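To whoever is on call:

I kicked off a structure prediction for a single chain this morning and the downstream step that reads the tokens threw a length-mismatch warning. I double-checked the sequence; it's 81 residues and nothing unusual in it as far as I can see. Pasting both halves so you can look.
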Amino acid sequence: MKLNLEIDCSPEEARRFLGLPDVTRANEMYIDAVIKAMQGGGSLEQLAEYTKQFAPMGQMGLKMFQQLIEAGVGMAGKPKG
């Protein structure tokens, strides 16, 4: 027997239905940090602080940090204008 079930709901409704936490505020904080880092507003000390913030997330956090650095290096090589 095969059963197909289609549910039409928003991501917010699905999150609540599945009992997942709302991580909107945490996501906004990470996005703000990434934007500041990409705009050159960061120093080596801030980079070290970002590393500490990502580290508690384990392997996933380190992967995100690696992608952040790679994106920054890619943007640094592009001409402004």
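Update from on-call: the warning came from a stale cache, not from the record. Cleared it. Sanity check on the structure: The chain has a mean pLDDT of 75.
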